[in-house]
Amino acid sequence: MRTLRLVTTLAVAGLLAGGVALVAATPASAATAVFSVTNNWGNGYQGQVTVTNNTSAQITSWRVEFDLPSPSSVSQSWNAQQAASGSHYTFTNVSWNGTLAAGASTSFGFLVNGTGTPLNCTVNGAACAGGPPPTTPPPTTPPPTTPPPTTGTPVERYGQLRVCGTTMCDKNGARVQLRGISSMWLNWETAPYAENLSALRWMRDNWNLQVIRAAMGVEPAGAYLSDPNKARTQVETIINNAVTAGVYVIVDWHAHEAQNNQSQAVAFFGDLARRYGHLPNVIWEPYNEPLQVSWTNVIKPYHQAVVSAIRAADPDNIVVLGTPTWSQDVDVAAASPVSGTNLMYTLHFYSCTHGSSLRAKGDAAIRAGLALFVTEWGASNADGGLDGRACLPEAQSWIDWMKANGISWTAWKLDVGTDTTNLLSPGAPVTGGWNNYLHGHAPFVVSNMR
């Protein structure tokens, strides 16, 4: 008779309860089940389950089921297909991890909102600890949970952000999907729309903007390398306005060959981290869109240097890392991620150019455990929409995909012009009030922010 063993790490029960988990000794031939948490943020945790074929023959599928005491719930999972009926959860293998050779293992992970731990666990119909499936659940009295507030500014509601599994969570451990807009290259903007506090408040209140991206150009004439004082002033104005308005702000080193100016980036981010890293509003983006260069030999070492400078002063704010080929090859980065905490990876798309094949790269990165952030996108061709065309059905597929995966985004770009991705039409005032000045893909962007 074939048996299948589920191996987890039950130490998590002790972590969550504040005590020590005790596991009774079992014969060597018995299945074992121990539970552990890979990340714990008080009101939620990240769990992992490892399924092991404890037989001498190959198996071709597996199914794990358990109950969670109310009001705890699974908010997200990866590396398994999830189904739920009330508080009962079922996880089955996906196409690539169902077949296990004798003694082989595979893992899936999940996020739990709440502190309840799995009960009545079975694997392929048998108890996770071996023997028949459990019939009588042990009594449990889960602690009450407090839902996050629904009023106040975004930062008042969500507070300090963190990476939890493959998504972003707020101060209470609940999943967050930020939505907002990016500035134009600050060195090329037609007017200081992104630096205006009244405009930022108007977007927060009328568009439901939660995050603004300060796209600080680095390499072109008039950008940071040739006029650092002007660029710093623009970025710090946007940061300070975001703090006043209670929204999040992405500080974007908007470059395509940042590895050639690594020392300047290290100095820039190290300085801003010392002065603004204590604020929960700030998200760092050290490399907008690397070109088609090596992740392991060029981009990753650059990120390691800049992240080290940031972490010297700011231990916890999220850092979003650019990926090869104009921030599309997230699957390549997933094969050798940067070590550290609260790190996310950049994926950019333009819906007239990019479709399901790029989403497949994103899916692969998520399966590998990466957290993604779409810091730039447009319902246009990859050139930003020079032809004025918008591809809204494909853009909606992207919106749905980002929502399903809890991926935050900022749309390109807050400026006036004829490109599809210019959000404003001529005559738009700098201070906001743009209901009659929406241009290009702006109506689509705004409707998906609200």
From TrEMBL:
Which keywords label this protein? Answer: Carbohydrate metabolism, Cellulose degradation, Glycosidase, Hydrolase, Polysaccharide degradation, Signal
Q: Which residues form the CBM2 domain?
A: 24-131
| Listed EC numbers | 3.2.1.4
Region (Disordered) spans which residues? 130-156
Pro residues: bias regions: 131-151
The residues forming the signal peptide are 1-30
InterPro entries, sorted = CBD2 (IPR001919), CBM2/CBM3_carb-bd_dom_sf (IPR008965), CBM2_carb-bd_dom_sf (IPR012291), CBM2_CS (IPR018366), GH (IPR017853), Glyco_hydro_5 (IPR001547)
Which Pfam families does the record cross-reference, listed alphabetically? CBM_2 (PF00553), Cellulase (PF00150)
Q: Does the keyword Hydrolase apply?
A: yes
What reaction gets catalysed by this protein?
Answer: Endohydrolysis of (1->4)-beta-D-glucosidic linkages in cellulose, lichenin and cereal beta-D-glucans
Q: Which family does it belong to?
A: Belongs to the glycosyl hydrolase 5 (cellulase A) family.
List the protein's name.
Endoglucanase
